[in-house]
Amino acid sequence: MYVVLSIIFGSTLSRTINGSAPFFPTIGAGFVLVGMHWLFGGISFHFPALENLIKGSSRVLIRDGEINYKTMQKSHISEKDLKSSLRSQAKLTEASQVKIARLESSGDISILPKENLPQVIEVSVDKGIKTIRIEV
Fold first, then answer.
1. Which of 3, 12, 72, 103 is the most buried (most CB within 10 A)?
2. Residue 106 DSSP code
C-alpha cells in the first residue's frame, strides 16, 4: 500500500517539476493524498470490521503440512513462490514440515514450522560400555 501511495505521490508532485501543472494546486493534491492515507489508517485502526474491507485479511496457504491450492489460486501465489518463501523465511524444504503458513494482508507469507520431538540417536561406543543416547 505504501509503495502504491509513494508512486502516486511522486508522479503527482513531479508534474510541478516539469512545469506541466501549477505549483500550489499540485502541492494541495499531495496533501489530499497524505490526508486520505492518514484518514483511512485511523478508520481501520478504530473499526476492525472496516480494516478487513480496506486492508484485506490473511489467508491460510498451508495447514498441518497440506497445501491449500484453491486459496493459492485465489491469491495468485504459485507453488514455486510458496516453496521459495519456505526456504528463505523458515529454512524448510517441504510443506509437510509446516504447521501453518499464511498470506498476510501486507503480502508477506508468514510460516510457523511444526514442533518436532527431539530426535534420539543411540550410539554404542565399544563392548562393555553403556550405550550413549544423544537428543538433537
1. 103
2. T
Looking at the whole model, is its pTM more than 0.90? no
Tens of pLDDT, residues 24-83: 999 999 999 999 999 988 998 999 888 888 888 899 999 999 999 999 999 999 999 999
As given in the structure block, the three cell numbers for residue 59 are 489467508
Domains in the chain, number: 2
Location of C-alpha cell 512545469:
19
Q: Give the helix, strand, coil percentages of the chain, each rounded to 5.
A: 50, 20, 30
**Residue appearing with cell numbers 508522479:** 11
CATH number of 90's domain = 3.30.240.20
- CA 92 to CA 83: how far, in whole Å? 9
Rounded distance, CA 96 to CA 54, Å? Answer: 33
Q: How far apart are CA 62 and CA 135, in angstroms?
A: 29
Residue 135 resides in a domain? no
Joined grid coordinates for residue 78: 504459485
Torsion of CA 8, 13, 16, 19, to 10 degrees: -30
